[in-house]
Amino acid sequence: MENLKDILAHHTPTFIGMDQCHQAAVCIPLLKNASGGYDVLFEVRAATISHQPGDVCLPGGMVEEGETPREAALRELQEELLLNKDQICYLEDMDKLYTGSRLIMYSFAAEVTEYQNTFSPAEVDEVFHVPLEFFLHTEPKCYITRARVEPGEDFPYDLICGGREYNWRSRKEDVCFYQYEGHVIWGLTAKVIRAFAEVVRS
């Protein structure tokens, strides 16, 4: 192990278990409004899709093999809102979110120009705008949820102190909600928007 220092020097730190995680990417679409500020564009997921139908979300999806998270976010933005590439102006990489359920979500900000309220009906039922100012001046209401650890039947309790009585830690998570003109923006979407608003305010 004489070359241990060299081996460690060439290592790029990452998350342990990253290879077992799914990666998703969303875009925060920003539209110039009449007052000179920005609106955030949201989608309502189509009622016909299997995962979270009817929920409010940002354009996005899973990162496909061979593409970066940024490429995935911009691709999904274009596909879901039926945009041309020249309507999209990438602004910046935003924060990443680890969900605790083997999903890492990347977020990116982009300005969309000359938008005509187009969207793919296979994925989206409707779109709506919320002024960015609303998020800058409104804190979401957050509620605590807890997830318990439930080992499988074949778990080797005899190898751990306490056995079946082991005091597992429960996972605590805030679930946040924004409400705007009859729309409820919650869950991961609310967390991404809250983090984005914090960056803009700073």
Helix and strand layout, with pairings?
Elements: H1 4-9, E1 22-32, E2 38-45, E3 56-57, E4 60-62, H2 69-81, E5 88-98, E6 103-112, E7 124-131, H3 132-137, E8 141-147, E9 171-180, E10 183-186, H4 187-201
Parallel strand pairs: 1-6
Antiparallel strand pairs: 1-2, 1-4, 2-3, 2-7, 5-6, 8-9, 9-10
At a glance:
The protein has 202 residues and is of the alpha+beta class.
How does this model look, in words?
20% of the residues lie in helices and 37% in strands. It is of the alpha+beta class. The protein has one domain: Alpha-Beta Complex (Nucleoside Triphosphate Pyrophosphohydrolase). The strands form two sheets. Strands 1, 2, 3, 4, 5, 6 and 7 form a seven-stranded mixed beta sheet that branches. The longest helix has 15 residues, at 187-201. The protein is globular. The mean pLDDT is 93.
Please tell me the overall pLDDT. Answer: 93
Structural class: alpha+beta
Low-confidence spans: none
Q: Which word captures the global form?
A: globular
> Would you identify the CATH H-level superfamily?
Nucleoside Triphosphate Pyrophosphohydrolase
Q: Architecture, according to CATH?
A: Alpha-Beta Complex
Radius of gyration: 21 Å
Total count of domains? 1
Q: Sheet bearing the most strands, described?
A: 7 strands, mixed
How many helices does DSSP assign? 4
Strand content: 35-45%
Percent range for helical residues?
Answer: 10-25%
End-to-end Cα distance: 47 Å
* Number of distinct beta strands: 10
Could you spell the SSE succession in H and E letters? HEEEEHEEEHEEEH
